[in-house]
Amino acid sequence: MIYDIIIIGGGPAGLSAAIYASRALKKTLIIEKSVFGGQITQASKVENYPGFEEVSGMDLGEKMADQAKKLGVENIYGEVTQIKKNEETFTVTVGQKEYLSKVVIYATGASPRKLHVDNETKLLGAGISYCATCDGAFFKEKTVCVIGGGNTAIDDALYLANLCKKVYVIHRRDSFRGEPVKVSLLKEKENVEFILNATVKSVDGENFVESITLLENMQERKIKVDGVFVAIGHVPNTQLLEDFVPLTPNGYIITNYDLETSVAGFYAAGDVREKKVRQLTTATNDGTIAAIMACEYLNTL
Ligand code: NAP
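Above: the input record for the complex with NAP. Below: its predicted structure, written as tokens.
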């Protein structure tokens, strides 16, 4: 059996593409590695998705996934390990199984960037986390730090400030990428302390995080913390594609205005592609464009 469209990645971009593809009566399969809804499921509150004044990211992700399923999109969980193209057909490998399609929409998003410091791997899940809304509750009344100066770090710190005894915000510069209005809110919190112009040298602890060592003005400074929340951006999930489609030096997929890549029938949508604004709304926008253009392409075959 050959699908019209296989969508790889079940976040907002992939699910929007799935909704449009199935409504255009294309036989569609969507493959997700972990959670349908993607990165958005980790947001405790979403307040900037039109039509939803306030919704949890998990609820919104579930609603999108349910909508796609009700429209008849087939879905499977699994990690894609290979993509090949022979003539006009793509072969997508998941475990021992191969799935065939005429079009692939690649919407795998991005994963949290690692600090790459001592003990980061050893203490992952033992005090180091990349998701404040997932793990914050384990640190009630404890002392934690958030690393980063973007919107994610600011949101995470605001969330943790309501749970934890003390929150350090550690940022490598003295100005923030995060929205000024959120930074101002954070500055009003009595249990939040900013440590600026500081980088992380190591996270310390034998079996669980005990402290963090910073470099501040070339001097080492150790702070006792129970948890470390890393929020320093994301890297695109394109490891599979290195010899398949052109990528930017940072690993993002290069597309044209219609979200086509240089491989006919292979589209990219969402945070995984090269673009300036990566938001929930721009992800759903990408999924829409990729699916509509993919349907046009299918109609020419
Ligand atoms: P981001 O905006 O790229 O910010 C990453 C932060 O981490 C920057 O402050 C950066 O410092 C710092 N950083 C990067 N590498 C580092 C390293 N190796 N060591 C220490 N610090 C490092 O990423 P993000 O906060 O995840 O946000 C991604 C996108 O999602 C943005 O467009 C953001 O606006 C959006 N977003 C929106 C919302 C919302 O609207 N509610 C919520 C979350 C995210 P420098 O500033 O020095 O580069």
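Notes for the reader.
The chain has six helices and 17 strands.
The pocket of NAP is lined by residues 48, 113, 147-153, 155, 172-173, 177, 231-234, 278 (CB under 6 Å).
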